[in-house]
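Subject: for your reference before the review

Hello V.,

The reviewers asked for a structural picture of the protein, and I figured it would be easier to keep everything in one thread rather than splitting it across files. Below is the amino acid sequence we used in the manuscript, unchanged from the supplementary table.
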Amino acid sequence: MKIPAPVIARSLRAIDADWKLAHTESHSRRTTVLQISAADGIERELVLQTHGVRDRQRNPHMARDEFRLLAALQKSILPTAQPLHLNTTHEPPFFILARLPGAVQPAANAQTLAESLQAIHAVDWRRLDLDFLPQVDALLASDLDTYEGDPLPIRSALRSSLPKLVVNPPALLHGDFWLGNLLWAGGRSTGIIDWEDAMLGDPLADLGKSRLEMLWSLGEAAMKRYTVAYLALNPALDASALPFWDLWGALRLSHFADFAADAKSASRMRLQYQRFYEAALREIA
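And here is what came back from the structure prediction:
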């Protein structure tokens, strides 16, 4: 969503009175790269982020909450962008961040991906006062009520399995952990981005949804290696409920055709999706 240049310019002056907006480049519906000029001659690039209508309906304070989370994560070891300015008076609200180095890669080592997810879940969210984040339980309950039009047996399987669900202690969850939200340079992780779906809950909820993302991106063998590597890093976790969280991930990603690159990709993803949720249904049964 495009923010007018005069509005951006005022926000930049709130960060540094000497900064001027030289150029903007839209990278997605919610991300714009800002090129900044200043009297010191140093070229800077910042990132402006906002949220769509559906996200703001789900959480009217999403910009504030994501900005607050990123500020807290500056005290952790995670490679996250430094938040610089929050504007909640504009509609839609937006915030400006320092731009992280690195780029998205179309493939990554399963072990490295598992280590990145583990690092997120290891954050001491209580020390960082992150209890303002949504709880998985509340989101799960909302999803089970919302997806009335689900033609698949996923929702009914989740509902019937919920009373006997074994839950692990809550951790910080990214909520949308996939290759598109990871930056790399020189073979190492330089950034974890797009935290608007962050929540608190069972780490397996993050793992289950990301397993489907890895299946689409890297294939079944890599997804299995990723899963084995993550569970090996977390031997204290009770993984018995992973099929349940696989199904919740499948429910939340049932709109996958919206982000398929083309009809061929959509067809492949549809087949992988069906095999994924059917395998989880068998495990739950």
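For the response letter, the relevant points are probably these. The first strand starts at residue 20 and ends at 26. Residues 263-284 form the longest helix (22 residues).

Happy to draft the paragraph if you're swamped.

O.
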